[in-house]
Amino acid sequence: MGGTAVVVGGGIGGLAAAIGLHRIGFRVRVVERAAVLDDAGAGISLHANGLRALDALGVGAAVRAAAHPQYTGGTRTPSGRWLSRMDGTALERALGTPIAGVRRSVLHRLLRAELPDECLRTGATVPSLLLSDPAEVGVPLPDGILAADLVVAADGAHSRLRGLLFPDHPGASYSGSTVLRAVTRHPLDLSTDFELTWGEGAEFGHIRFADGHAEWHAVLGSPPGVRHSDPLGMLRRRFAGWHEPVGTLLAATRPEDVLHHDIDQGACQALEDAACLAAALAEAPSVEKALARYDAERRPRAQAVARAARQAGRMGQQLSGPLAVGLRNTAMRLVPSGVALRAILRHADRTPPAVPARDRQS
Prior knowledge:
The chain has 12 helices and 17 strands. By secondary structure, the protein is of the alpha+beta class. Helix 1 links the parallel strand 1 and strand 2.
C-alpha cells in the first residue's frame, strides 16, 4: 500500500514512524513544532526490542555502530553494596545483543538521515485536523493544507491531536516520578558501563557512551511540574554521601546541561509502534484495516509494558520507609541471576514484524 502521510512530531517516535512509512512507499511529511532542532535529551538505553525495531526499519546497523554496548554494572544501594549484577554477555547470548547506550542527539540525527531532506518541516504547529472526508484528512498550516491518507500523531505524551480526536480521554497518567539528567562535559574513567542505585524515594544511574562521556539520571518521587532554581545544587545535596561515581558524575556536569522532565513514556515502545504500523500498512488492503490490526497488536503489549514500568517504579525510586527498602534489598540479593534475566527477557525479547522496502516516493 502506498499513499500520503503526515507525521506530527519530529522526535524519536515521529521520525521512526516516518521512516517506516517512507520505507513501504508512502510519501511522507513530518511537521515539527520546534523551529530549531536542538535535539534535546541526554541519552537512551536501547534494549533488544528497540534495536530489533530499528533493524526492521533499516536503521539498526547505523545505531549499533554509534552506540556503546552495556556489558558491566548492575543495581546497588547508596552505600555501594551490590544488590544484583547485570551480565551483558548473558543478555547477548539470550537476545543477540546487550543493552546499547547512545546519545539522543545522535539517534535523532541517524533517524533524520534516513528521510529525504524535504520531508521535515520545522517551526510549524498543527492547531487542528480537517476530517470532513472520511477517506482523507487534512493538516492545516499557515501556508495551506497538507492533505493525506493518514496522519500519525507523534506529538508527545501530552498530545494536542489526541485531545482533538478524543476530547474525553484523560490523557497520559503521571508516573509519580520526575527525572533530571545530563551528559558529562568530558570523558570519565568509569569502572562499569551501567548502574542503578536505589535509595529511599530516589534512584541514581548512569550509562557510558562510545566516546567515554557518560549520561547520568536522577529519578525522584515528586508532584508533577515541580522545578528547582538550582537543580544541580539540589542533586548534590540530595545525593551527598552516596557511593562513587555519583559525586564524580555530578561534579563533571555543567549546570546548564541539566534537563528536567516528568516521566510519562519510553522510546523503545515508540520504535516498536513505528515498525508495527509500517508492517500493518504494507500488508493490509486499506488504511482502516491496517489501523485496526495495529491497534489489536499494540494495545495489549503497550498495556503490559506500562504495568511492568509502574511495578518497577514502586520497587525502585518510589519505595519509602527503612523497613520496606530493607525488605526489597534483601529480596533482590536473594533472587538468582537466572530469575532476574528472565524478568528482563519477558519484555525485551520482542521482535516486530518485518517492514518490506518498496519503491519510495519523495
